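Predict the 3D structure for this chain.
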Amino acid sequence: MSEPSADPAPADSKGSATGTTVVAPRGDLDLLSAPPLSARLDTLTAGPRPDVVLDLRAVSFIDCAGLGVLCRARNRALARQGRLRLVADNAHFLRIVRHVGLDGVFDIMPRLPETLAVAGAGRAAAPAGDLRG
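Done. Predicted structure below.
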């Protein structure tokens, strides 16, 4: 059995003029990388009416810990009259979401809306635990 990587999944984080924050993790979203991403999303969903877009197109693997992060962030956003949207075009990820019964729970888009893709472009990647919004 190989030893798992201790590095958290790196992610980009960018704000927009509309108040939406886009977080784009990449790589594996698993037991090791979930805690720093969860902490970042907790920060982003702490205020009133948070609007977060989680761009998962560069995530190559997600396990139950990763799904738990998504559910927690969604619940925190909704509790504060906000929203969490997912961007995902990976058939495997979409199949997992469907099989665990979360397909009607998340607002999933196949691509980032153009207004959000342009805002904040060019920001450097940072580890999921050290993102600046």
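Residues 99 and 131 are 31 Å apart (CA to CA).
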